[in-house]
Fold this protein.
Amino acid sequence: MKRKGIAGLVLAGALALVSVASLGGCSSSKETLHIYSWADNFDEQVLKDFESKFNVKVTYDNYANNEDLLAKIKAGGGGYDLIQPSDYMVRTMIENNLLEPLDKNNIPNFENIQESLKNPDFDPGNKYSIVYTSGVTGIAYNKKYVKDTIDSWEDLWDPKYKGKVLLLDDNREVIGMALKKQGHSNSSQDEGEIKSAVDDLKKLLPSVLAFDTDTIKQKMIQEEGWIGTVWSGDAAFISKDNPDVEYVVPKEGGTIFSDNYAIPKGAEHKELAEKFINYMLDPQVSAKNYESIGYSDPNAKAMEFHSEEYRNNHMINLSEEELGRTEWLGDVKDTLQLYDRYWTELKSGR
Amino acid sequence: MRRSKLLITPVLLWLALFLLVPMVIVVVMSLMSRDTLGNVVFHFSLNGYKTFFDSLYLGIYWDTLVLSVVTTVVCLLVSYPLAYFIANASPRVQTWGLVLITIPFWINFLIRTYAWVLLLRTQGVVNTLLIHFGWIQEPLQMLYTKGAVLLGMVYNFIPFMVLPIYVALEQMDKRLLDAASDLGATRWKAFRHITLPQSKSGIMTGCVLVYVSTTGMFVVTDILGGAKSTMISNIIQQQYLGARNWPFGSALSVIFVITSLILILLFNRAMQSRADRAKEGRA
């Protein structure tokens, strides 16, 4: 009987610890900017500099995909002041009335942004969003294991790479890739085209090591995967740690994307969030930040502060020719259900 | 009597507020529809339930059941001897055994799961050692397989099995075993007719805990399985997030809860009736 007491106590103690740990968090009297964004999306020093310069605190939570972000913001959760939705998600969030219009008076550095990245289709006049970075989903491969010339999505299907192929864990990206491979739009709403793309992907499935978005970088760096669909900025990040990794935008074209600053409706520290955007768009801060995260810098005035290495990195600064054969992910409306269903089929191996 | 009622009121309120109300919301939502933007609209529909009876989702549900049952059985096979050993050890060893089993609880579940990635990956600890000792030439692909998923599940849920079985064995009246041996029973017979039936409550609790936790798990398949195998909970999560189809996600959740309850009831009934039959046989 006594023994039982001990066992119960140990178990109760363990449970209590778990629950306390999960409740953990802290409060501070300083004004706090709550950022909700992708993993590794900011240089930590740049955030710290912002904290000391404005005497505020910054918290930074991560999401793995746009849909997680949407669900959380829609549920009114999180209490976030600044988010970084991708292009198509900016549109969805505007349609759902989830974003605050930006007060450009607080963001004079908006002027620094390259003209080509201003005024995008998904947010005419940059009413709700400002570009943070952009890139293209292409193929990253490790030259140690992949000796052939890689220039087509078709190369992923090469049996030589069986068990070593990585795909993003994202239905629009992956089905979009297969659609491009077959010469269609990455946002097709035609069931026949989608089905044929998915059938093609089912043939690729035995070669797939893993579906992964968050830690695909680590899988490439550790050489678990040899070849896969990777965002250009991630490829730049990977090749810094593993110089054997190369990147290419396939000849069929790839999906271009951008991540953008936006402020969710009802954000508590809207002005601070705008100050933050403005701070990040300062040419020197900008150079420091993008130099560290290895993504493309949309700041035209920042180029002179960048290292030569950064300016010459073809994974960060894609050529006009490469950008010429890219396509944005469009809104597929109700066809999204079809994408989801086929995606479930694919991932459950049916 | 009145005082005890007063004492349990906060618990009941807590349960009503944080268990019952969300359940009702889920049930109501499962009967609604979805608009083009993915918002839930208050328009009665059974589509969520209809979609489930599609070979695609039924198949995934079946896979989930199989994996959960296998995980439970493996957990039981591993945990019973361990619990038996601890329960019959000296008090000192018992205390240490229990502490060692509970220590992993102090570390976040995700971190423990990622630790397996470091062990199993191609350049991981296990492969490096095996290659170092010359037992293999090429690294083994252990990660991102079904085996890795099973391993992760079993590893995470073993304590849920060991602790209840340990408690049951510990409470057992050991004098029964002496009596059995005095009456000429072999050790195996004594175990089969005394120890095993006496620890049944622990086995049942452990099995239900492990089974329920496994069916609801979705991160292990992502981290150790490379997101290649899909469990019903992955689908539910996907409906709430990626697909933005909350009514379908809710319908799946309702079906999931009901079938789990039925299965657990059947399991309990089966265990119970076997025990009754055993009692009658002896009488």
